[in-house]
Each structure stands twice: as structure tokens, then as C-alpha cells.
TrEMBL record:
Name this polypeptide is given: Branched-chain amino acid ABC transporter
InterPro entries, alphabetized: BCAA_transport, Leu-bd, Peripla_BP_I, TAT_signal
Pfam families associated with the record: Peripla_BP_6
Transmembrane segments: 21-42
SUPFAM superfamilies the record matches: Periplasmic binding protein-like I
Domain of life: Bacteria
Keyword annotations from UniProtKB, A to Z: Membrane, Signal, Transmembrane, Transmembrane helix
Similarity comment text for this entry: Belongs to the leucine-binding protein family.
Gene3D superfamilies tied to this protein: 3.40.50.2300
Boundaries of every Leucine-binding protein domain copy: 57-397
Species of provenance: Photobacterium proteolyticum
PROSITE patterns: TAT
Amino acid sequence: MKNLKQSNTQARFSPLNRRQFIHTASMLGAAGTLSVYAPGVLGTRDAADIPQNSDLPLKLGVCGPFSGPAKQTGDAIRQGVLMALEDALAAGEAPVTINGELHDIEVIWVDSQSSPEIAVKATTEAIQQQGVKLMVGGWHSSVALALMDITADLNTIHLGHLGASQYIAAKINDDPQRYRGWFKGWPSPPKLAGLYGAPLKYLLEHGLWQPANRRAAILVEDSAFGRGWGEALMLSLKEAGFNPLPFDTAALDQTEFRQLINKYKSEQVSLVAMTSTGDVAVSSFVKQFKELGVKALLLGHGLRWLSNWHEMTGDAANYVVAMDSAMPIALWQRWWVRRFKTKYGKEPTIPAAGFHYDYTRMAIKALNTANSLDFDTLTTIIRQLPYKGVWNYYQFSSAPGPNALSANEVMTGPFMKGFYLPMVQLFDGQAKIIWPIKYAEQRFRQPPWI
């Protein structure tokens, strides 16, 4: 684990190997004590029911951008997974029971480097050469679209990849039998992340936001996720009475946006919406938006996916609105955040750390429930096994419907009744819920330059 730039890195989790486990965690910035906190816990086993130990570990592949332009996200994914494994070990969920035998969990870190081609090579190696039996997690939609065929060809289940693009759902709908082992861990933008129209319309109707007009500009990263989000956002804004311009695209590692922002100024837009999963791209845009004095509200989707977003943007992020992450609404969520901060010394990026925590715990629960690595048995268990995690209630759809765009897509719903994200506004490094009103921590504050 000393060289995380390699495509695959591994760590083993075993009650007989706790010293090595703690050492491994500390190498990743994860030093801390074991905790018994376990949402969705299966319960500890009675002595008479404990299966025999196996010398063969179960190899769990965890996908993420552990190096490259989204490395910060990869670091957070790694921290969330390690915390989940530590909690599962303490709760008696690990080792996992497969065919009546206990198996330690060995993690294979599959580094996508934010590249579909690299991800395909790394995943193929992990499954064929390193013996990965189940894949968990991931970040980029472009990577997800590439991995879907590899995991299908290699008859390997992939649970909770956070690639959100509706193109993934369309691919599943085109051949649900082939992709029945792909469990899409983030709802498609038309079902969730692109639905900014309703809260923005609320702000207008209640006089909280008084823009000069309804013109909107949209910038997305040049990827399947970006284009899908842009399409969904344009439709949502039009339905809410806005007049969005065709969306622009930018590379994941782009850092210069002044020419584009000046174009938005000349168009006299009242809303600028942007998204990127690039660490530097999103922070650069936010700072340049403030620098050039655009008289518009900034919608910064994905800014909070950076653990140090305030450090990178300073007061340029003040007044930004976003609906891109879960928030610690319930007491158990605040407790989880407190534990994470104690463990890692910083605030968690909830989608990267928190959602991967939940999907790792869900994977362990599914394995123990199935007591098998049989592909059809395990896919059936995952599809039929709702899981109440720390951050969401996770249930995969059996078919397209009002809460999911395809089969095997996690379903949206109200808070802790589905996959749910509130709208927040940023001030001085803090995110405060402003919508829905039921959970609001403060009222929306119109930027003084509007």
C-alpha cells in the first residue's frame, strides 16, 4: 500500500491480523480505535453457530480514482471503505461467511486514475489475476460505462458504483440480462441531481431570490456524467420557467475559465450552473467567477466533493448553492461525522467517504446473507435486500419507474426512505440546508451583487 499509484493495492482485514489492519489503516491516514457503531448490523454470532475458518480470504475490489485529477476523491473513498471494514470487523460482520466457512476480507484497491481505459485494465487484472470476487464503488460515469462490459464478460458483480449518468441506465435498459450484476449506486440526473428547477422556483416565488431575468448558463465537464447532468438540468430549468443557454463543456483538468465567464457576463445571465469532478477545475471556476464579478447566482454542483473546498476557494464560495451531497440531518449521521473527524482529522466528503462506507457495509451484509458467491444468488439477494445505511436507504429498482431510470438503479425517495440530497448554501466553509424547508437550517441569502 506504499505506492497507491499502482493500479491495484491490497489490504487484508482479519480478527487474527488486527496489528496489520491498524498499521494498514494508519498508512492511509486512518489511525484510530475500533468502534462498535454498525448501522445495518447483522449481529454477532453465537459461539455454537460460528463456522470454520478458511485460510483463503475473500478479495473485495474497490474502484476509485486513487491517483490522477480526482485523487482527493479517491483518498476519501479509501477512508470511507477502511472505516466501514473496521466497523464491520468490530460488529462481528467480518470475517464473512461463504458456504459455511469464515473468510477474511482482503481489499484490492483498483485505481481508475479517472481514465476508462486504465480502469478497464486495472479491473481486468484485479479479477483475472488477483482473484477479486466482488467489486464495490467507483466515481466517474465514463469509467462506469467502460467497466460495465468488463464485469459482465467476467461474470463479476459490481455494487454501488457512483457513476450517475443516465447513459448508464440506458445501457442497462437495452440489455438488463447482460448487466444484471451492475448495481448503479447513484440515481440518474433526471431523477435527482439535475432537479434544481423546483427549489430555485421556490426561491423565486417566495421573493428570496430576485434576479434581473431568467437566463441561465451551464458549464459541465466533458464526460458522460457532465453531459447527462447538463441535459437533465436544462430540462428542469425550462420546466421551472428559466431560459437556459446550450451547455458548454470543459476538460476534467481545465483551470482557465475567464474567457467563458466573460461570455456569460455579456449574455447577462442571472444563473450560472457548473459541475466537474476535477479537483482543480471546479475550484478554479469558482474563484474566477468571483474575480470577474458576474452578477448572477452560482450553482456549484460537486464543489463539496473536495474535502478542502473552502481552503481551495476561500470566500469565493460564499453564496454558492448546491444539491450534490447528503447532509448530517439525523443524530446518527452527526455522530458518524464526529467519528470520521476524530479518526482522520478533517471533515468527510460524504458522497465519496460516506456513500462508499454504506455500500461496503451493504456488500458485507449481502455476502453474509447469501452465504454464497454464486452470481445469480448474490444478485438476487442484493436486489431484494434493502439496506438502511448511515446516509441513505438503499434499494435497487427491479425496473424503470418513478424513482429509478432503469433496473438495478438505486431508488430516490424522501429522507431515509430512498436516495436523497437537500439543497445547501455555502458560507465561510460551512454548508447550510436551505431546502426543503422541513430540514432548513437557514433561509436562502441572495448574493449582494445581484
